[in-house]
Specification:
The chain is mainly α. The chain is built from 16 helices and no strands. 72% of the residues lie in helices and 0% in strands.
């Protein structure tokens, strides 16, 4: 039984951000002072990310504390790195998924936008590398942290490769869920689960946890990240009513997956089990950058009427249950365990799924 509630958790998130965000901003101050033009490339995302709840630093802090770490402010700069690393991945994701209209415009304009984003990503990558090098961490731990960062980056980009190539036109390659799910789960795990796993493992390493505890935290966070990725795939169909940002997608990114021809689990289910009209309602959004309200509504309703929402939500809940079970088996009752369990619940209950559920 939880001792703490969601209000306690959100206060914890707010406190973490209050410490970490100024550190993130300070990491870019030298760039701001010495090269304004380059700084302007990263500034919009930097200001956006430091004004909202940051999940990766929270994971690192919680993992540090649940493994016995004291005075988390001593590792606040490493918590900041987790969000700066997240920014680095964001920049490339804009290109991969055509976010912020990167691919929209004439050739010259598109080339400039892509060049700017690549440069912004490279600068951001160097900034978080410098912070690790300059951190007051024992050399052996620093090497271990750098090793895990390198592993996670490789996995994340391999996951991006799999994601880009798991397209709707490949639907007929998969005869059943047993054929589709291994490919889908793999890309979800290494595209998102790997980074969440990294965030947790770094906290455990800094707390001086045993290798066994490190691996347990890593596994829990990987389940969390993978489940949240799949939850976001379902939440992609939430109606884009307004520009909000939560721990999932921003509302302006809604319907991006179907628009970019991605074969996600909710799409697969409709194409496999939906009727012809339900399939058509989804397929008309592929490559459609200006869908009408009627087209959006019919696609969302098809997610429900086909049974896709119910199936995917049950599937997502499985990740939550496995992560929570592992957490409760591995750690004694504590404030930190309660907070961790509340954080895990974001997999199955968030604003996007709540909005989508209204269409049922």
């Amino acid at each position: 039984m939880l001792v703490l509630n969601k209000d306690n958790y959100f206060e914890y998130v707010k406190e973490t951000g209050g410490v970490v965000s100024p550190i993130i901003l300070s990491c870019f101050q030298v760039l701001k002072d010495t090269d304004t033009k380059i700084y302007e490339l990263v500034e919009p995302l930097l200001l956006k990310r430091t004004k909202i709840a940051q999940l990766r630093p929270v994971i690192t802090r919680l993992s540090y504390e649940i493994c016995g770490g004291k005075d988390w402010r001593k590792i606040a700069n490493i918590c900041a790195i987790m969000e700066i690393h997240n920014m680095y991945l964001y920049f490339h994701n804009w290109i991969f998924d055509n976010k912020n209209s990167i691919w929209i415009g004439d050739l010259g304009n598109v080339r400039k936008k892509i060049s700017d984003v690549i440069i912004a990503a490279a600068i951001t990558r160097e900034i978080f590398s410098d912070i690790i090098d300059e951190s007051n961490i024992a050399p052996e731990k620093k090497l271990e942290i750098e090793k895990h960062f390198q592993k996670s980056i490789k996995e994340t980009y391999y996951g991006q490769f799999l994601d880009i190539n798991l397209t709707i036109d490949r639907f007929k390659e998969f005869k059943s869920e047993k054929d589709f799910l291994p490919s889908y789960e793999l890309k979800s795990k290494i595209q998102s689960g790997s980074f969440y796993s990294l965030s947790g493992r770094i906290g455990a390493i800094l707390a001086g946890a045993s290798k066994n505890k490190e691996d347990i935290i890593s596994e829990i966070c990987e389940l969390f990240g993978t489940g949240l990725h799949i939850s976001n795939d379902l939440g992609d169909f939430a109606p884009p009513l307004e520009r909000k940002i939560t721990f999932g997608k921003s509302y302006q990114d809604q319907l991006a997956d179907i628009r970019e021809n991605r074969l996600t689990l909710p799409v697969y289910y409709v194409l496999k089990y939906g009727n012809e009209q339900e399939k058509e309602n989804l397929l008309q959004l592929v490559g459609n950058y200006s869908p009408t309200k009627e087209q959006i509504d019919s696609a969302i309703k098809s997610i429900h009427s086909s049974g896709s929402y119910e199936y995917c939500h049950k599937y997502i809940r499985g990740y939550f249950n496995r992560a929570k079970k592992k957490l409760h088996e591995s750690f004694e009752i504590s404030k930190e365990r309660d907070l961790f369990a509340i954080m895990l619940s974001v997999i199955r209950t968030n604003k996007f799924l709540a909005e989508l559920r209204k269409y049922s």
